[in-house]
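Incident log, structure service

09:12 report received: a user says their structure output differs between two submissions of the same chain.
09:20 pulled the input from the user's history:
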Amino acid sequence: MFTDLKPIPITISDSNGVGVDITGATVYFTVRDNNGLDATDDNDVILKVAITSHTTPASGITKMLLTATNTDIVPGDYYWELQVVFTDGAVQTTTASILTILPDLTKGT
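09:34 re-ran on a clean worker, output below:
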């Protein structure tokens, strides 16, 4: 379990690299088990972080803080995505990929 975590800066941008206004939007970081990608339910969700307070929302800038508790995940490969739900209900998946969790190599220091 990591205890030295720092905020991760995130910029939501369009295909031209221009920041998208995320004022009032919720940004979700979701990690799913590698055995199932059934987006119809959350049965395979390992971690889901909802970000509602943004650094500079008009420019698409926010940050995510992971905690030692929610990063206490069994090492392995998982699927993750970053999704924005705007105030009008529109949903935009901005990024999706594979996340590899490595074991903590230094113990007890």
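09:41 both user submissions now match this output. Likely a transient worker issue. Closing.
09:42 reviewer note: The two ends are 13 Å apart (CA to CA). The CA atoms of residues 12 and 80 lie 16 Å apart.
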